[in-house]
Amino acid sequence: MVTLVSGRPVDPDEARQLMLRNGCRPKTVFTKAKDPWPSTCERCGADIDPTYDSIASKARRSGDAPRGCRDCADRARAERFRLDEAELARTIALANIKPLEPYTNNNTRLESICLNETCPRKGKPIKVLIKAVRQGAMACKYCARRAIDSDEAIAIMREKGRVEPSTAYIRVDDPWPGTCLRCHRSVRPRLHDVMQGQGACLHCAPNTPLTKQQAWERAIAYRFRPSDPEAFKNTNAPWAGTCLNCHGPVNPCLGNLYRGQGACNSQTCKITGFKDSEPGLVYLLQRTSGPAMAKVGICEDSAHNTRLQVHAGNGWTVVHTRSFRVGLRARLVEGAVKRLWFDERGWKNGAARGEQRSDGYTETVLLDDAERGEPWSRLTPLALWTDVLIQAQQLGFDVDEQRLEAAAG
Q1: 3-state helix, strand, coil in the chain (%, to 5)
Q2: Rounded to 5 degrees, what are φ and ψ at 26?
Q3: What is the DSSP string of 307-348?
Q4: What per-residue string of b and e applies to 364-385 under the rule 16 or more CB within 10 Å gives b?
Q5: Residue 5 pLDDT more than 50?
Q6: Domain ranges of the chain
């Protein structure tokens, strides 16, 4: 006889019989009620180790029944909540997926194809948990941005990080070995950092101190030859030289070249950047850190343009945007707004305030500035954006854009 903590004796043979009546076949002799008792599940044959105390307590409350095996309990629970054909069809339609295998239960992931047109997987199989879909979760973790497809990850690293990966993609926060496409050195950036606008290469970062020899090599890589190698100060200081493509004079900053700007703005060399003949975008940004301010600007309205991502990495938030089918109109609207703010109303931009910012400080305006006087002492992004829309309307571009949209339709 074995005495329990409560003082009640337990016969080992009776304990064994109780375990057998509840679907557990003990493999060792009974020792203590609260010790795991190695057994075999009589339903699935798996090795289990329930305690006598847990089996006996449940048997007293609910009677003898197969228990003690977690896997069998999970399968029974999943079968109990298994969907009928009609409910399954409604759930699949809601999830917008195409199953590739028969439905088992809510707890078993169903191999499927996401039917969303913008799905990054582009027809490649995904695993969908029906239970999660019924609880309101998005079926495709790639569309929900809970995961990144390997092909998309490689494209982001090449386009935003300027790095050619040398190994397969694993996770967004893991260092990812590759080769910098600027300096051709080995790097290990994290995809998450690149997506947040951080640089991928420590050797090429815009604020990394450089020797004069390193600066010279980087300048040549960016297709311009400095006139005086000894004149280099730092990556944010202009450095006069000659364009190696058109042989015209240039005066770029190495830091700006790293951020994606071209070394030469001549019509011969300017094959990227804002084009007056292509679609353009007027945007209004807001920054809340330090003195709150807003900024108006323009960029290409195309999928490969990263200017807004660069601004986001510098602490700006995109508040409003307006697309134009002709980029020249976006440029004219921006110019009209800047004349209105800084010439007609006499507001001070970042340059007039003595700021030394490299991300468009000639286009920024403080949201709170008592020196402006009423009614301009306190501004809101909505009021500033209203100025943008009014200037576009006064220039007659709203009607022209409507005509172009009608012609395209």
Answers
A1: 35, 20, 50
A2: -65, 145
A3: HHHHHHHTT-EEEEEEEESSHHHHHHHHHHHHIIIIIIS---
A4: bbbbebeebeeeeeebebeebb
A5: no
A6: 2-77, 83-134, 150-195, 212-258, 280-408
Contact indicator for 182, 221 with CB cutoff of 8 Å:
yes
In the structure encoding, which two tokens stand for residue 163, read together? Answer: 């790095």
Q: How many helices (H) and strands (E) does the chain have?
A: 13, 18
Residue-wise pLDDT for 115-155, tens only, equals: 988 888 888 898 988 888 887 788 888 888 888 888 888 98
Q: Give CA torsion, residues 156, 159, 160, 163, to 10 deg.
A: 90
Q: Supply 119's token pair.
A: 């799905």
Phi, psi values for residue 77, rounded to 5°: -65, -45
> Residue 225 and residue 220: Cα distance in Å, rounded?
6
Whole-structure pTM value: 0.41
What are the pLDDT digits (tens) for 175-201?
999 998 877 888 898 988 888 777 788
3-state secondary structure of 226: strand
List all residues 6 or more positions away from 156 whose beta carbon is below 8 Å from its beta carbon.
Answer: 148, 191, 194, 195
